[in-house]
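User: Some background: our group keeps a shared notebook of sequences we're curious about, and every so often someone picks one and asks for a predicted structure to add to the entry. Today it's my turn. The entry only has the sequence so far, pasted here. Could you supply the structure so I can complete it?
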Amino acid sequence: MFRLAHISDIHLSPLPQVRLRELASKRITGYINWKRHRKDALHDWVLNNLITDLKARAPDHIAVTGDLVNLALNLEIDNGYNWLKQLGSSQDVSFVPGNHDAYVPGALEKSCCSWEPWMRGDGIDNHNKRPQFPYLRERDGVAIIGVSSARATGPFMASGDFLPAQAARLKKMLTETGEKGLCRVVLIHHPPVRNATPAYKRLFGIGRFQKIIREAGAELVLHGHTHLATYNEIASPHGAVPVICVPSASQAPYPVGHEGRKPPARYNLFSIAPAEQPLSWQCLWQQYGFTSENTEVQLISEQVLMLGRSAPQISGSSDPAALAE
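Assistant: Of course. Here's the predicted structure to add to the notebook entry:
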């Protein structure tokens, strides 16, 4: 059995001291948003308690689907490197960048170079330079494939992209790992499904991504970005591929009766084991996190997913809220 933990949208806090010249860009709008909203909602104590509980369950691997920082300041990128080192070794943690890690032009290059060890494919030497996406890691019968949707955008935009060159590499990886009989888990920051976010936050290339899944297949897609707990599906040659989002790992719980739009911090734990049918896996999906009634991390829900050839066929629209809660 392979146990994979999933966290996302870390948004390390508190925000470091910001110099005026660093605000002469899109960062000014992000800084104002942080001061007005996020600094009261995203807290380091929440993140620390969540990670402590996660580590106590000793997963085999941890997937982090982006937004490690807020404004992609140089100090934030340094802090992100130190945080990743504390989270786990680069062999045991896989990271993909989000839009906040690419907040302004040039930031994605800096963050990817700094955090490269956690985005390094097996047998690849990036020579301390920005890695090529997607990257591939094989762990105990599971293929972890990291896709980047991160890009710098203008003010009031948080969109991502999935371009043809990366799409061609992803299809090749999915095909080859499928032929090897691996359980394929794809990591991406932006949701690769329609209507998951407003237009200004969407992924450009959703149709391209879904076409590859329909043709080459996958077993599980994990993402972040929305700060919500959602479940969607993409059709594949062997049935439905679950597409799962986890709330921000730093979102503080609200007092009872004052719940906010975003659920409190959670992490997902996927326990993946081969099923009797060839190229099939049984996956126990557990959600751990906070609720408005409890400031301690607790089990919120659990359910069994059938992946691969034993996955259910898509016969109609699913109820994402019912499946995620």
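Suggested note for the entry: The chain has one domain: 2-14+23-324. The longest helix spans residues 164-179.
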